[in-house]
What does this fold into?
Amino acid sequence: MSANPKAAARDAADMQQLLELNAEYIRAVQESDVARFEEMLASDFLCTNFDGSFVDRAQFLKQTAAPVRISGLRALDVEVRILGDFAIVHGRTAYAKPDGTPGGGRYTDIYARRQGRWQAIAAHVTRS
It folds into this structure.
């Protein structure tokens, strides 16, 4: 048990919030939910896509608006590391490709606590 109950409660609340943001991020990708990403992404958000391209927030929102061709996207093996006002989320994805064959990948999302709330500041995605 933590020596500081308030700190332990804050850490638990942060962990829960980051897990929920991770789930929302995955859902927003699957559903092309630009509005949700506008809420979640910091103004200086940057992303390395699975094809190696590097996009800023505006470009990410534009590419997110296009309907995705995969289905059943889900996150697996999610690990959250909280480092003060920063957090790193590692995970694995599984989904069905347009032809029905299984697909997957890995991702790393970085969050920063800004003005009292967690915002995604960076993402890196791979596909296998």
